[in-house]
Structure to design on (357 residues):
């Protein structure tokens, strides 16, 4: 485990997480959430949990982003708060 | 109100950090999990189930009952989404757009107008303008078989490498969703109809629960795949390995169908007429 890589990815996870809940544009929030999932996937694989990383990459970063984007396109793009 | 919420979240975070400080360190060899839980599985999985990937054997065999209900939860999510979003009442839209294939001229046909139903010269297009992009359509169509083969590999190879029913099912669903995005929803519905996706999601759960019930009928415990030996005739250990494969296929089918059903309903507002 390379600790520098770990720190960088953890920082990106936090940035993506905070970004996803503060951004007003919901499409941007969905994409940030996908990026967050991908960073989590990298973290899992660094820690050796390859199965979890695979699930996170396919479900978290893949299909759930698509589902979020579909929902955003069919509702409203801007968040009220 | 916002400040109270922030304070509550902050306090919960502090509690979590305080609670987590009591955990054993990451990869600590003297932690309880590493001293008498993990070694049992690491040492005996190969001997009892003949599955090199311990995660798969734990997921589908040692805690197979848990995974069965995980699949049921996904099935329930699909059903809930269907019941919430699906608009069953057929209401004709105000107008529909058709493109003349040879010339590219778009026709708007008002409600009550004659729709060129049987002719092949026209194709239906979505009412929100979609650019007709040959490159995207062809390259996505080239990608789809590769994605599907990879998904089947992930399901079938879950014993030896990371992967399994959940991931493979999601990747299979992604290939159909790619068709729905790059073409339109109707092309995807031609490949996998709504009825088929609903049917398959139930079939997947049925395969899982049915395997368990079959073990029960053969005189063993529920989901004790060793009992399948009398049907497969490959020895108790290999029967557990094959049982895991059967169950993974069930999970894959269920997850694929549910994900496709979710996408269909979400992207078309439940009308299943015009997608994104």
């Amino acid at each position: 485990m390379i600790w520098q890589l770990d720190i960088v990815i953890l920082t990106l996870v936090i940035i993506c997480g905070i970004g996803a809940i503060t951004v007003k544009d919901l499409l941007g929030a969905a994409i940030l959430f996908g990026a967050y999932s991908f960073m989590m996937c990298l973290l899992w694989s660094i820690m050796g949990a390859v199965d979890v990383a695979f699930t996170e990459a396919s479900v978290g970063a893949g299909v759930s982003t698509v589902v979020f984007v579909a929902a955003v396109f069919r509702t409203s793009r801007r968040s009220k708060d | 109100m916002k400040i109270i919420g922030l304070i509550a979240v902050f306090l919960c975070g502090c509690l979590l950090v305080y609670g987590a400080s009591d955990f054993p360190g990451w990869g600590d060899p003297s932690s309880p999990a590493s001293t008498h839980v993990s070694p049992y599985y690491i040492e005996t999985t190969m001997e009892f189930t003949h599955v090199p990937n311990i995660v798969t054997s734990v997921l589908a065999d040692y805690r197979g009952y848990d995974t069965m209900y995980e699949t049921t939860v996904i099935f329930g999510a699909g059903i809930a989404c269907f019941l919430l979003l699906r608009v069953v009442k057929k209401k004709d839209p105000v107008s529909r757009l058709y493109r003349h294939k040879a010339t590219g001229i778009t026709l708007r046909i008002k409600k009550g107008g004659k729709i060129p139903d049987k002719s092949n010269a026209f194709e239906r297009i979505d009412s929100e303008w979609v650019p007709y992009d040959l490159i995207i359509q062809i390259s996505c169509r080239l990608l789809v078989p590769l994605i599907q083969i990879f998904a089947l590999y992930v399901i079938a190879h879950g014993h030896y490498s990371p992967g399994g029913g959940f991931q493979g099912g999601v990747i299979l669903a992604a290939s159909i969703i790619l068709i729905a995005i790059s073409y339109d929803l109707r092309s995807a519905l031609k490949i996998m109809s709504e009825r088929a996706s609903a049917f398959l999601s139930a079939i997947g759960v049925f395969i899982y629960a049915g395997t368990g019930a079959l073990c029960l009928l053969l005189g063993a415990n529920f989901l004790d795949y060793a009992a399948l030996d009398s049907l497969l005739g490959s020895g108790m250990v290999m029967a557990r390995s094959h049982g895991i494969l059967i169950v993974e296929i069930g999970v894959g089918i269920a997850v694929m169908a549910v994900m496709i059903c979710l996408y269909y309903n979400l992207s078309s507002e439940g009308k299943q007429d015009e997608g994104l």
